[in-house]
Write a structure and sequence with these properties.
transport, transmembrane, transmembrane helix, ABC_transptr_permease_BtuC, ABC_BtuC-like, 15 helices, 72% helix, ABC transporter involved in vitamin B12 uptake, BtuC
Length: 356
């Protein structure tokens, strides 16, 4: 009896591995972290430019000496008394506007939304023009609290008109448009009635970082910090809400509570920023789009990106306004409006946005 010869079968080939020397793809989380670190570096560079560049150029070594050494020269006075407060205010206000815009776009699921959509700018403007024209208050410190109160009341009115606890993104947008139109009509009417009010209001409404003291920032700093912490805490539930109300409810998100707290965060952030510097537009529109293109739509990443990159945009825009028509200045609100207008045109021409 012969034993048959066994035929050996070759083993299954192993899956091909990476070629020697080939680069492994980096995890997306590493790229996002690198983007945050880059934002910190750019913010430091923008702050240095804000301290050094202006009607009088000051070398960086002299800027450092003015910040760390005893004051005694004209350059020291310029850096400490004029440019340092301006830079600090710009960084805080820019971060608040960028973070507020990110919360607004996530809440309303509207990529063209900015903080003015909830009536924050219109409410602050109406309160300021009332303080100037009716009560005769002309100092920044005097009408600061009027601006904050007006922003809060307008945002509350928009939320109530939009349905209160049952508010939807579409109803919030429509209510915000109606409140904005009514309040800005009031602002224009009262400004034309009181010419002195028109002069004061014209300077505040353009949006500027000039002549803003640190004391104003310290006054609203608790509100800005509270708004920022609240917005960051809402990042996860807002991310669930962005998937749709049904998905959010299935994930255990308390939808009505999240919407109310989001409106509170937007009011604190944008109301405080508007009270200090006047309405500065398009920062809350531009930065979330740029952040979303790099880190994706997840609010847990997008919100920190906006808080870092928005002050970079605002400080750089302020520097551009100082040097483009020397020795005069263009207010930062005008520069951001120009840049934002270009972006807005680009966005509305995109097919996905045009079909909203």
């Amino acid at each position: 009896m012969s034993i048959g010869t066994c035929t050996a079968h070759p083993a299954d080939p192993a899956p091909p591995g990476p070629a020697p020397g080939a680069k492994q793809p980096r995890p997306r989380g590493s790229l996002r972290t690198a983007g945050l670190l880059l934002g910190v570096v750019l913010l430091v560079v923008a702050a240095a430019l804000s301290l050094a560049v202006g009607a009088k150029q000051i070398p960086l070594d002299q800027v450092w000496s003015a910040l760390t050494g005893p004051s005694g020269t004209e350059n020291d006075a310029i850096v400490r008394d004029l440019r340092l407060p301006r830079t600090l205010v710009g960084a805080a206000v820019g971060s608040a506007l960028g973070l507020g815009g990110a919360v607004m776009q996530t809440l309303t699921r509207n990529p063209l939304a900015d903080p003015g959509l909830l009536g924050v700018n219109a409410g602050a403007s109406a309160a300021v023009v009332t303080a100037i024209g009716v009560l005769g208050i002309t100092s920044f410190t005097g009408y600061l609290w009027f601006a904050l109160a007006g922003a809060a009341l307008a945002a509350t009115a928009v939320h109530a008109l939009g349905g209160g606890r049952w508010a939807t993104p579409v109803r919030l947008a429509l209510a915000g448009t109606a409140v904005n139109a009514a309040l800005f009509g009031y602002v224009n009417g009262l400004s034309l009635w009181h010419l002195s009010t028109l002069d004061e209001m014209r300077y505040w409404s353009v949006g500027t970082l000039a002549k803003r003291e640190v004391s104003l920032l310290l006054t609203v700093a608790p509100l800005l910090v509270a708004g920022a912490l609240l917005a960051l805490a809402l990042a996860r539930p807002l991310g669930a809400l962005a998937l749709g109300e049904d998905h959010a409810l299935a994930l255990g998100t308390r939808v009505r509570r999240v919407r109310v707290l989001s409106v509170v965060a937007i009011t604190l952030l944008c109301g405080g920023a508007t009270a200090v510097c006047g309405p500065i537009g398009f920062v809350g529109l531009m930065i979330p789009h740029a952040a979303r293109a790099f880190c994706g739509p997840d609010p847990r990443w997008m919100f920190p990106y906006c808080a870092l990159y928005a002050p970079v945009l605002l400080l750089v825009s302020d520097v551009i306004g100082r040097v483009v028509v020397p020795p005069s200045e263009i207010e930062v609100g005008t520069v951001t409006a120009f840049l934002g207008g270009l972006l807005f045109i680009h966005l509305v021409r995109r097919r996905k946005v045009a079909q909203l």
